[in-house]
Amino acid sequence: MKNMPARNIERMAQQDKILFKMTLEAIDYNVNAFADLVMNLFQSATAADKKAHGQGKAIYKSFPQLQDIMRSLVN
Prior knowledge:
This protein starts with a helix and ends with a helix. It is built from 4 helices and no strands. It has one domain. The protein is mainly alpha-helical.
């Protein structure tokens, strides 16, 4: 059972193997790029929230999980 992924790779067409290898090699970059996009989205959303509701009444502050997620993305 634990060799199943290796067997599946062996059965792939050559072009699929190349794409699979490229995907694995680019995983660090892709994850970092995704984290940057999420961080930019968060910053835009919090800026809009502050503008709409004021600094002290921003709605995002009532969700501490958002801050935890952002800290995880930064680290």
